[in-house]
Amino acid sequence: MRECELCGVRARVHCEADQARLCWDCDGKVHGANFLVAKHPRSLLCHGCQSLTPWTGSGSKLTPTVSVCETCVERRGSKFERQAEVQESEAENDGDDDDEEEDDDIDDCDESDEDENQVVPWSCCSYSAADPPLVASCSSSKEEQEEEEYSVSKRMLLFLRESF
C-alpha cells in the first residue's frame, strides 16, 4: 500500500506538480490553500494496485472517486471472460429449459438489472456541464446484448463491484 506523504494513510491521488501521493483530506488541504495550487493537475491512483490511472483533474478539492487502471481492468476482464465461458458451457449441459426465461428477461430489459449497473456520482457537485449524464440503454437484439457484456466499461463495473 502506498501511503500519503503527509499523514501516512492510504494515498488516493498523485499530484503531478508536487510529485506527491496524497490522501483525500491532505489533497483538499494542500490544493485548497490558494488558487495557484488548485490548478495543479492530479491523477487518481488505481483502487486495485495504486498505479496511475488515465483520470486527471484539478481544483481546490476533488470529490472522492474510485478509478481503476487499464491493467487491472484487462486482468479482471480476462478473468470475467473465462468465468463467462465456463458458465456458458455449464448452461449448455443443463439443457434448454431455462433458455425461454432468459430470452424473456432480455426482451423485458428488467429494470433491476439496469439499477445494478448504473454509475452514480457520490456528489451532485462532481458533475460538470461538459460531461453528459450517463444513460442506461436497452439492447433489442441478442447480438447487441452480447457485445455490451464484454465492453470495457462493463468489466470495470464488475471489477468495482467485486472490490467492495
From TrEMBL:
Residues 1-45 form the B box-type domain. Coiled coil: none annotated. Residues 87-117 have a biased composition (Acidic residues). InterPro entries: CONSTANS-like_Bbox1, Znf_B-box. The keyword Zinc-finger applies. Residues 79-118 are annotated as: Disordered. Keywords: Metal-binding, Zinc, Zinc-finger. The keyword Nucleotide-binding does not apply. GO terms for molecular function: zinc ion binding. PANTHER family: B-BOX TYPE ZINC FINGER FAMILY PROTEIN, ZINC FINGER PROTEIN CONSTANS-LIKE 10. This is Nucleolin-like. It comes from Pyrus ussuriensis x Pyrus communis.
